[in-house]
Design goal:
- The chain has 233 residues and is α/β, with parallel strands linked by helices.
- It has one domain (5-218): P-loop containing nucleotide triphosphate hydrolases (Rossmann fold).
- Helix content is 26%, strand content 22%.
- The chain is built from 7 helices and 10 strands.
- α7 links the parallel β9 and β10 (212-218).
- α1 (5-15) packs across α2 (37-49).
- It is globular and about 55 Å long.
Length: 233
């Protein structure tokens, strides 16, 4: 495991504390796969959970991948035990929809909220979401919604909601939810020479009404020693 505690604490300081009685929503996204977005999002959530009073939610937008839950569950020595899944929304709101809908034995529509579980992680007050792929029927697909309802519902139940988005070259999910985040942070590998792709992603997020708060630089060289960089636009 890469220890990013000091870098994530520095990022939190730059972003500022949660705004009063509601959570701060922070999305991490890269222009291309392989930049380390999931690692950064996970370690940011872990660091924030150390002092969180109401807790931290780590929400994975890449529904079919399920990487965050699997990673945490496989490394209990580091993160602690991952508990059983529970309801992942304080309301019926959800950030995705599953189509075509199916009906229960009573003839009622199976709600989207039933496809997502929230699992407690270790002794800290944080939860990781897991999309219940096993509940899908043949032919069903899930699509991320550009709707603030789910994110607004979570605000009063956490200090931070940390969103791990799939890379922009694979999915438009990050751009769909970007306007509802308090901060969108780009993850860029130091050895990635395609600066234009990250710049384009930044501009697209801003054009959709999202706030691009800066950049986390991964795989940085030994000098300068700091892993984390914030680049103001």
């Amino acid at each position: 495991m890469v220890d990013l505690a000091s870098e994530m604490a520095a990022l939190a300081e730059r972003l500022g504390p949660p705004p009063g009685a509601v959570a701060r929503l922070v999305q991490f996204v890269a222009s291309a796969a392989g930049a380390g977005t999931s690692t950064v999002a996970r370690e940011f959530a872990r660091e924030m959970a150390k002092t969180a009073r109401r807790g931290v939610w780590l929400v994975e937008l890449d529904l079919m991948k399920g990487e965050q839950h699997a990673h945490l569950d496989a490394d209990r020595a580091t993160y602690g035990r991952v508990g059983d899944g529970g309801r992942a929304s304080p309301s019926d709101a959800m950030f995705f929809t599953v189509t075509p809908p199916i009906k229960t034995a009573k003839g009622e529509l199976w709600p989207d909220v039933r496809y997502l579980a929230a699992h407690p992680v270790g002794e800290s007050r944080w939860w990781v979401t897991r999309f219940r792929r096993e509940a899908l029927r043949p032919g069903q697909t899930a699509q991320i919604l550009s709707d603030p309802a789910y994110w607004d519902a979570l605000r009063s139940h956490a200090d931070y909601v940390v969103v791990d988005a799939p890379s922009a070259d694979r999915s438009a999910a990050a751009k769909a939810v970007a306007p509802f985040m308090d901060a969108n942070v780009l993850v860029v590998a130091a050895d990635d020479r395609d600066v234009a792709a990250s710049t384009t992603l930044r501009d697209e997020i801003v054009a959709m009404g999202g706030r691009c708060a800066g950049v986390v630089l991964t795989r940085a060289p030994a000098a300068p020693p700091a892993f984390l960089r914030k680049m103001l636009y």
